[in-house]
Amino acid sequence: MKNIRNVLFYSITIGIFSALLYFFIRQGTFLEKAGQITQKQTTTSSWEQFTDTFGHNIHHPLATLLLQIVTIIIVARLFGWLCKVIGQPTVIGEIAAGIFLGPSVLGMFYPEVSALIFPANSLSNLQFLSQVGLILFMFIIGMELDLNVLKTKAQEAIVISHASIILPFALGVGLALYMYTDFAPDGISFLSFSLFIGIALSITAFPVLARIVQERGLSRTRLGMMVITCAATDDITAWCILAAVIAIVKAGEFVSAIYTILLAAGYVIVMLKLVKPLLKRIGDHYAYREGLTKPVVAVFFLMLLLSSYCTEIIGIHALFGAFMAGVIMPVNQRFRNIFIEKVEDVSLVLLLPLFFVFTGLRTQIGLLNDPHLWWITGLIIAAAVTGKFIGSAVAARFVKQSWRDSLIIGSLMNTRGLMELVVLNIGYDIGVLSPEIFAMMVIMALATTCMTGPALDLIDKFLPGQKWDDLHPVHEPSRFSILIAFASPQGGRKMLRLAHKLVSKQPDEQVITALHLSPSSYLNQVNTEEYQYETFRPINEEAHELNTTFTSLFKPSQSIEHDIIEIANDGDFDMLMIGIGKSVFEGTFLGKILGFTSKFVSRERLFDTITGKEKLFHSDVFDERTTHIIRSVKVPVGILIEKKLEQVRNVFMPLFTPEDRRLLPFAERLSAVNGLRMTIMDPSQTVSQHAATGEALDALQEKSPENVTMLYENVLEKDFLQSQDLMVISLESWIKAVESHSVWLSNSPSVLIIRS
After folding, report:
1. What is the CATH number of domain 478-639?
2. Which of 163, 341, 599, 756 would disulfide-bridge 662, Cβ 3.0–4.6 Å?
3. Is residue 640 within a helix (H) or strand (E), and if so which, with residue range?
């Protein structure tokens, strides 16, 4: 009845007001000037009117900007992924994406497409939006600098970082002598040109360096802290020098630039002595997620914009103000972590790629059409590498670092990446760099960043560091060591609970290592420590309840499955335990295409596809990552499918084939646990008829008669399965059950699948 009333009311209301609208519009047509309307209708057809409107909409500035953003994000993510696959930082791919979309590639081979996506009159909009992204990014970089770390290692860091600045700076000024006559723009003094070439060769990319340090597992080591400190000191020093250089360039003469430098010094004093204490009070009071309300966030964003505005009008560029605003943010780590989360994704994913592509649109590699120009490019790269690498490495060796650590520091400090592009764009905007020099410098930035990874690999090869066995004591054969690799903290808690049962046979020799690998792109220098604490907190709580201990291992990773395999194979472990869950794509067409995973196809699968070892889209019962781990790890692997595993008291182990006798060592370990009941089922009785297996089963029953029950019939019914906490099954039997669509699978409890 209620539904009828609603339909009746809806119909009457819509009908009455539709009629009223028709009446109003009908009366309004009499007010039109008939001559104008008739003339307009007769000049163009309806289709022509539509095409004209559609064409206008396509070329509207907002539509053009949105098309540019969509294109840039897609191409940047694709190139970034390709570089990640070959072991290069994703920033290299994003820079390459910019060059690809610019006149060097797309504009050269497909000028019509380039003109449609990036018309010349739209580049100013793209530039301003990219500058907003840079301002937010420099704000994050400032917040990621930990000034307390600089204080602890300030002396050594200053020696290394300043040596890594002065040597390439001097080489750059010397190189400017050779290039000034042919390449300096008209009206630019030698002082301005040489200072800018010097600072361009002296910069280090702190964010790229920090990411490489994390991905290499060095962030918690003495060497990692040292190189992060050196890079941070380098960043602060280089930006101060850059501010002075910009002031000199804009003023024209050094004497007139002193006024700008004095204004900049006054700005820094005000920010440190007045603004910083005020922000600290606000940050300490609102250092929790609910406290960062919109008015509070608005205060900090307002400070960011005002700081950028001040440095822009002073004459040292808005990016220095954004960087300074980040540095003076409250040092409360929790506050910085929350604030970075609010800004980082929009800045890095949406706006920063616009800057890369805008740089690529400016980079005209086609201008380097003469061998002499490429000779100059080679000289620039040689001067940059020689100055930065040798300056850093020699200084590091002077302050008593080992040769290996000194070379690593030199290789990392030679990384330029994004920060170099920022400096180059500033130089291009103020007219110091010609298009030819700009293109040469962009190539130098790409080359020096690309060589960092291979250089570190060569150092590891010829000057190897400590091995895994040196860092972790070798376990005696009597011990049973388990590595649990978990993704979610609660999943790790359940895995620790099960691992504790497997090792409790020898409580005085428990060896459990909990490993969490986090995608390096999820972390920054501010939130790493807090993220690690929160990740392991549930597992620490579970270990306390179980009265057991474990070793925690946290590592940022570029390839999670590769690192799991490497750690499991290199460490002295007797078993690897991993967890899996159902994907949102499972059972769908997309799931079949992607192999039950939302991730891209791995490089190992691509290689196997190219070499003909397997198909690109697999049909395994697990996703491709799990399958790759199962096939590559040398020790037994346990795959836990967790379904509310709150306790481990009733365990069920079916033995379907004679090969399943490999599960008996695990049955022996579980049956030795007090209060745990183990049910072993041999429905075909073929397993127990095997001589050695039958003896092992008899010995197991004799050893733990109160804990072990044998069943020789098929009892895989719903009531029995629901009474169990865990099923332990071999990988081969599980695959057969899944492929045959066994009905009992839907009622099974949590499952531990073991590949012996």
Report:
1. 3.40.50.620
2. 756
3. strand 637-641
Q: Any idea what DSSP says for residue 509? A: G
- 290: tokens are 């609910």
Residue 298 and residue 286 in contact, taking contact as beta carbons nearer than 8 Å: no
Looking at domain 643-755, its CATH class is: alpha beta
Between 338 and 104, whose confidence is greater?
Answer: 104
Band (pLDDT 50/70/90 cuts) for residue 511 is confident
CATH class of 72-271+353-462: mainly alpha
Mean pLDDT of 31-48: 62
Rounded Cα gap, residues 129 and 125, in angstroms? 6
Q: Beta 726-730 vs 637-641: how paired, if at all?
A: unpaired
Length of the chain, in residues: 756
Closest CA to 179 of 436, 358, 386: 436
Backbone dihedral angles phi then psi of residue 513, each to the nearest 5 degrees: -120, 125
The pTM for the full model equals: 0.69
Give the model's confidence band at 695: pLDDT under 50 very low, under 70 low, under 90 confident, else very high: confident
Q: In DSSP terms, which residues pair with 575 in a beta bridge?
A: 482
Instruction: Write down the domain spans for the chain.
Output: 72-271+353-462, 478-639, 643-755
Q: Which residues of 601-637 are buried (b: 16+ CB within 10 A; e: fewer)?
A: bbebbeebeeeeeeeeebebbbbbbbbbbbebbebbb
Joined tokens for residue 65: 């900007």
136 contacts: CB under 8 Å, gap ≥ 6: 322, 343, 346, 347, 351
| Cα distance between residue 96 and residue 78, in whole Å | 11
pLDDT at position 592 over 60? no
Q: What is the DSSP letter of 713?
A: S
314 vs 173: CA distance, rounded Å: 26
**Three-state SS at 729:** strand
Report d(CA 576, CA 562) in Å as an integer. Answer: 14
The pLDDT assigned to 610 comes to: 42
pLDDT at residue 581 above 70? no
Identify the pLDDT of residue 269.
92
Contact 732, 662 (CB under 8 A): no
pLDDT (0 to 100) of residue 97? 92
Residue 194 has pLDDT above 60, yes or no: yes
Higher-confidence residue of 175 and 50: namely: 175
Tokens 């007769």 map to which residue?
A: 42
3-state DSSP percent of the chain in helix, strand and coil, to 5: 70, 10, 25
pLDDT band of residue 44 (cuts 50, 70, 90) is: low
State the Cα–Cα distance between residues 632 and 609, nearest whole angstrom: 17
Residue type, 58: I
For 488, phi then psi, to 5°, come to: -90, 145
Q: Look at the block and give the residue holding tokens 């646990």.
A: 673
3-state SS track over 25-50: HHHHHCCCCHHHHHHHHHHCCHHHHH
Residue with tokens 């609910």: 290
**E strands of 545-600, at which residues?**
551-557, 575-580
CA atoms of 513 and 548, how far apart (whole Å): 12
**Would you say 420 and 205 are in contact if contact means Cβ atoms under 8 Å apart?**
yes
Give residue-wise pLDDT tens across range 425-457. 999 999 999 999 999 999 999 999 999 989 998
CA 152, CA 143: separation in Å to the nearest integer? Answer: 18
Closest C-alpha among 305, 421, 415 to residue 352 = 421
Instruction: Find the largest Cα–Cα distance for the chain.
Output: 107
